[in-house]
Design a protein that fits this description.
Length: 241
């Protein structure tokens, strides 16, 4: 609807290095939370409103309590780049991807065409050498955050996330394969995979769905089903259910 997007920051929360504790503020006077008591946790803030005067008033109210910094129009927030055009708002995590590749020594790797190998046969295998669990969990966690704008890696992440407590060399190789796929196009976005009886251990299917509002994609998910489907048709019915 072409509403302006403004970004503000609380300056004094970051004057003395990294903040070890969380910052809170009281609820605004007009806010009702059903009679419950509580406070708001403070972040960088994004404000969207159809009334510019009301946005300025809200900024003034915050400035009376905190030292505020006006960051202007929203362009970059928590690893997400924001660009506007006449067609709408474009979200990208290209810089986030490049930083991730650099941190893991993958900037010079050979790109691959898919986020995961077909018929990968990944499973818990006691005979395989284990790898650093902490590093594996941190890396998969960062990739999960990336999936906010990259639904095309959702299926691959649903696979590697199943081995968080006991990752081996095959599992970390699959994660590195995802990074190599991201190298091929850091800003690319595509679709989510689905498979019938694709899990090697339990033969369960993975289904996908997308939610559109006004023709715009707002949510997506790729999830392993809880029961085994005897046919692809049954898997589709379970996915719809």
């Amino acid at each position: 609807m072409d509403w302006p997007l403004k970004q503000f920051d609380v300056k004094n929360a970051f004057l003395h290095g990294n903040l070890e504790e969380e910052v809170y503020m009281d609820f605004p006077p007009a806010y009702s939370n059903g009679g419950n008591t509580g406070v708001c946790r403070l972040y960088d803030m994004i404000i969207a409103r159809d009334n510019v005067d009301e946005m300025s008033k809200l900024q003034g109210n915050h400035a009376a309590e905190f030292e505020m910094k006006d960051l202007g129009d929203l362009k970059y927030f928590l690893g997400v780049e924001v660009a506007r055009s006449s067609k709408g708002i474009f979200l990208s995590q290209r810089k986030y991807v490049l930083d991730l590749l650099k941190e893991n020594g993958m900037l010079g790797c050979k790109p691959v065409e898919t986020p995961i190998v077909k018929k990968h046969h990944l499973c818990l295998n006691p005979s395989q050498k284990l790898v650093d669990k902490g590093r594996y969990q941190r890396l998969v966690g960062r990739l999960i955050y990336l999936a906010h704008t990259r639904p095309n890696i959702a299926y691959a992440l649903s696979v590697v996330s199943q081995f968080m407590h006991s990752p081996n060399v095959n599992h970390i190789a699959a994660v590195m394969h995802i990074l190599a796929y991201l190298k091929s196009a850091p800003g690319k976005r595509s679709i989510v995979w689905e498979t019938w009886a694709g899990h090697v251990t339990d033969r369960q299917s993975t289904s996908r769905y997308f939610t559109f509002v006004g023709g715009n994609l707002v949510t997506w998910r790729s999830k392993k089903q809880k029961a085994v489907s005897w046919s692809s048709v049954e898997a589709e019915y379970r996915g719809m259910a």
